[in-house]
Amino acid sequence: MSAPIPLTLLTGFLGAGKTTLLNALLKQPAMADTAVLINEFGEVGLDHLLVERLDGDTVLLNAGCLCCTIRGDLLAALDGLWGRVLAGQRVARVVVETTGLADPAPILQTLIADPRLARRFVLDGVVTLVDAATGAATLEAQEEAQRQAAVADRLVLSKTDLVAPAVVAALAARLRVLNPVAPVLHAVAGDIAAAALLDCGPYEPAGKAPDVAGWIGAAAPQGHEHGHGHHPHHAHDVNRHDSRIQALCLEYDTPLPWQGLAGWLEMLAMTRGAAVLRMKGLLDLQGESQPVVVHGVQHLFHPPRRLPAWPPGLPRRTRLVFILRDLDPAVVRQGLEAFLKAAGDEQAIAAA
Question: Where are the membrane-spanning stretches (predicted)?
Fold first, then answer.
């Protein structure tokens, strides 16, 4: 079985410039053999007419209500695409462009939850486009825009040439609060190198060490302090009190017991899954020489995967990133620490 095909989710609120970006990207050699799936809101899809390279690789997903119908449409489109791959057509990667009104969670869930899909396609990352001119107002008014920014692996500011540098800087600062691990990049008229947006997930192309450092955010957010033992370092709360979406970054210097961590993740998914918009982790586990990657969306957590080796230059340390909605980060942190302590106590009893 060949390696799964990387899939990039391109999202961003209405008018952010997704189609412009896509058109510019598709002209670059790095995007050769890319299949594009476009989800258009409403009865008549226009975006697919604007993607210049409209050939057999562009599929229009028509979905009035994204939550209800997109999953079936997306599965059917990817099934059809896989049929063409089996017939010999070369597809190097897939880009799914969502409607600007979309909450990305249902699509992420579909990609993670369907085992057949997971064997064929692997989520390479979420790229969220934010309009520099209207982005601040949109983030204030639209919760979907906040979610799109919160779950991104890459945040791209469009139309930065139309507004004052101070406005761009303020918007970038607001986005870093919503999502402290995604780099904030700029693209004027869609002009950005495809390489800056690709290979940002836990995807491992043959012979290439995964860019876990880029995926999980190698640099600790401001406010991190290094600790020891099971005491995590975590960013002080820079979140605005009126925001329902908050980010939590935890780091642990010593290897963690998988039993305690897995038990806690399971409980979190079952009891508070709806509040976990995104979870990503690079784990240093007891008894494991290789790093283990976990990630999840709401109630669904991907099975843990071992990576071949620790990324060069990245110290062995557990890093967990949570994007939470209506859930106090302290509750998450305290719950994890209670489970880790219980697992440690059990080990001590067993060893006695």
Answer: none
Q: How many domains in the chain?
A: 2
Chain segment 90-104, per-residue pLDDT in tens? 888 888 887 666 677
For tokens 């060893």, name the residue.
351
Give whole-number Cα distances, 69 to 19, 254, 309, in Å: 22, 45, 40
d(CA 21, CA 6): 19
Residue 205 in domain = no
- Orientation of helix 66-86 relative to helix 105-113, angle to 10°: 40
Q: Tell me the two tokens of residue 190.
A: 């869609």
Half-sphere exposure of 71 (CA within 13 A, CB side): 12
Q: Is residue 208 part of a domain?
A: no
Bridge partners of 276? 324
- Strand segments, DSSP code E, in 142-195 are 154-158, 184-187
Q: Is 247 strand, coil or helix?
A: strand
Strands 58-63 and 34-41: parallel
Domain-embedded: residue 128: yes
Q: Are residues 87 and 158 in the same domain?
A: yes
Task: Using a cut of 0.85, tell me whether the model's pTM lies above it.
Answer: no
Q: Rounded to an integer, what distance in angstroms lies between the CA atom of residue 317 and that of residue 259?
A: 17
Q: Which domain holds residue 81?
A: 5-196
Under a CB-based contact definition with an 8 Å cutoff, are residues 209 and 308 in contact? Answer: yes
Whether residue 207 lies inside any domain: the answer is: no
Q: Note whether 157 and 254 are same-domain residues.
A: no
What are the b/e assignments for 310-327, b being 16+ CB within 10 Å? bbeeeeebbbbbbbbbeb
And the tokens for 143? 């919760």
At 285-335, the pLDDT tens digits run 999 998 888 878 777 777 788 888 887 777 888 988 888 888 999 999 999
Residue whose structure tokens are 């409980």: 267
